Fold:
Amino acid sequence: MNKPIDIAVSLVLHNEQKFIPRLASALKNQTVKPCCIYVTDNNSRDNSAALLKELLPDAYVHLLQKNPGYGTAHNLNLDKAFRDGADAVLILNTDTSPETTLIQTLQEFLTKNPDTGIVAPLILYGHSNNDTGIVQSFRIKANFRRGTIKNIDDKKYLSSANLPLCETVNYFSGTACVITKRTFETIGGFTEDNFMYGEEMDYSFRAKNKNIKITAVRNAVVRHYHDWSEKNIDGLCREYYYINRNRIRYFKKYGISSGLLLFVANELVMLPLRLRWLARKGGKRFIRAFYLGIIHGLKNVSSKMEHLNLYE
Structure:
């Protein structure tokens, strides 16, 4: 019988104090405890790091003096976790809550299925007052030539969705995922040029090219309490700016000229309808952010400077 593997947890903080108590409670209540919790704080201005350390005193917390983004921070955690002896790392957004058996389920699955290099848990929509079984993501299919994804199970109900216990997929969500040491040693960490958004497409594409198996596992359940709203214009601008910019950077990085041409051609054809939609959703700021993302992608603008004053 194979020895149970050691699973660590990777968290990245940036002004997310309100989410930490729920996440810390869920991690403390796991039926199988993580071998360690690694935390990188991306220069939070609230009490995020101190509160997490108070609630999870055994966590390793690394404080940064700037915000380098999602990929860089998780890479710091991944590198240290694997150097410390972890066999796999569970990456979680701070606005999530894993079910109490999550790590146990992942441990059992990976111990029995060592050919899997990345695990995609079942992610359900979380609600503060009444959690439901509505699926946010599970089986996701990527079209790497077009840089698009199809979320097969989006908005299905867990009770009636007839989800398989596990299924091989070609894409995973960075909201919650597991990366094994073998995968990290084979293809490295996340791209650090994106700042946010698009890291999963890049990583899944590299995994495909190295024949690394990604498996969606139904009994590994995480709830996502993302409080994003279309009324948050800053968030809307930030999201679409980075999605557009990083999608183009992905095409250019891997020489997928057909995808790039198709994307640009589609935006030109859709321009009148797109402008009306952008104006209705967020006005001039949203229009500027959307198309600035495309321009910066075409110019191959890096992520380390422009994000601070994007809408001014």
